[in-house]
Amino acid sequence: MVGRRSILLGGLALAGLLVFRGRGVVAPAMAESFEIEKTAEEWRRILTPQQFAVLRQESTEAPFTSPLNDEHREGRFVCAGCELPLFSSATKFDSRTGWPSFWEPLPKAIGTRRDYKLVLPRTEVHCRRCGGHLGHVFDDGPKPTGLRYCMNGVAMTFVPKAAA
Fold it and tell me: How do residues 99-137 score in pLDDT, each as one tens digit?
């Protein structure tokens, strides 16, 4: 038999979940306007299914699956959606988390917003130009910034520095 207290606690839990789920869960392209805006169908035509899930639906790739984890050449990591340069290889480091990590983005490359999808707040990182979801930033990175930009490798492509 379900008591009044169980119903009340269940209702409060459900209300809390709805409040937290309602924050920061709108796909980036719908939350604000960006220089490059496309319909979902237009994005589907230019992105792989996995890129679409991460960049447009804020999914997360499985850890230790990105070839970018092992990318150590000099160059830039660019948005897979719009090719905006996001990170320099000079700021990449091995965070041992399973995702490509950087201690600093390129100037004017990213945007951030609070993300409450896991109830506790995090800082979501997205491409400044197209709004594509890239990952999250945490304050447990190396010097000089102390930040760890933990990015989905599928959200980026690597462009090596041109040979001189």
Answer: 999 999 999 999 999 877 777 788 999 999 999 999 999
Side chain identity, residue 87: F
Q: Which helix (H) or strand (E) holds 160?
A: strand 156-160
| Closest to 54 measured CA to CA, from 70, 68, 33, 74 | 68
DSSP 57-116: H---PPTT--GGGG--SSEEEEETTT--EEEEGGGEE--SSSS-EES-PPTT-EEEEEE-
Residues in the chain: 164
By annotation, the residues acting in catalysis are: 150
Q: Say whether pLDDT at 12 is over 70.
A: no
Contacts for 134 with CB less than 8 Å, ≥ 6 apart: 55, 79, 86, 110, 125, 126, 127, 149, 151, 152, 155, 156
Closest to 128 measured CA to CA, from 149, 113, 141: 113
As a whole number of angstroms, the distance between CA 40 and CA 38 comes to 6
